[in-house]
Amino acid sequence: MQYRKPLIFSVEISARYGPSLMPGGDPAAWPHLKNIFQSIAAKADGEPCCEWVGNAGSGHFVKMVHNGIEYGDMQLIAEAYHLLYKAVGLNHDQMAEVLQDWNKGELDSFLIEITANILKYRDENGEPIVPKIRDAAGQKGTGKWTCFAALDYGIPVTLIGEAVFARCLSALKDERVRAAKQLPRPTVSSDVVIQDKREFIKQISKALYASKIVSYAQGFMLLAEASKQFNWDLNFGAIALMWRGGCIIRSRFLGDIKRAFDSNKQLSNLLLDTFFTNAIAEAQDSWRVVVSSAVRLGIPVPALSSALAFYDGYSSEVVPANLLQAQRDYFGAHTYELLEKPGTWVHTNWTGHGGRVTSNTYNA
Predict the structure, then answer these.
(1) Is residue 23 within a helix (H) or strand (E), and if so which, with residue range?
(2) Model's pTM, two decimal places?
(3) Given this structure, which CATH class describes domain 320-364?
(4) What is the CB neighbour count within 10 angstroms for residue 27?
(5) Which of 118, 131, 147, 353 is the most exposed, fewest CB within 10 Å of its CB?
């Protein structure tokens, strides 16, 4: 096969066709800078991917969350690739064709597009280059910073967290090589787990889409909490528009997010928007099949599975935190609330020897 030159980096594309810009700071400066910034920004449907974000720090925070979501998107696609390769048994040209097909539908995005190009790329020997790349991912910190902020504000940005930890785990390459020779692995074959490979490929695409919805829902949850903490009054529809061009997470999907927030300014979570509720309903059976199949085959899917776990937790009226509260009260007298009296904290003398002394309630 003919040797092809590498793809142009997205940084170079942004330099030529405009980046996504997320300005924030002193609002008095914006009228003086607006025309300059919007003229050089990327355009989506003729609109500049640049709008005023908010007061001090808001632009940097929005950019940070963008990068955190980018970590999640990349990890989800990597897991889909791993499933196509290890579970379905496709070669790199076949996987490229699958992703090119996905890019014609709801998964249309910059990252799916470049991943298809990466998979079909050949080196000077005419061989796929991806299998020759050492599987130890680097990172520069923005995903980690997003997780720090999520922990500070108590927002369960679990998928981005798993994406960051997946990179940390990948960096343990030498240790993983040793462990692979020593630790037992599942013995079931993919032919037993996957009855119809064409159908399973479709299910992977649906699992990827559903997980992506959860990832963005979590990202906007974090933006909403930061907006509340700092009185930024963020415009989430405008933020989605800013991300529709000139950035790594550019995708058709962001138009649906913009429409969701434009139609309901008080929307508390993307999952509660009718469009995304219906999308999850259509995809969730496939999502569960993919995650359970990966578990049986021993193929790690931390982002896909954490997204599903978050969805199941968020959609559960009751979770086992009641037992956690009882445990905390038993060993530390931390007290708990009763369902019939929320806001009133009580302590139980579980052993008969603990007395009535309690610790102060606090939130970490």
Answers:
(1) none
(2) 0.92
(3) mainly alpha
(4) 11
(5) 353
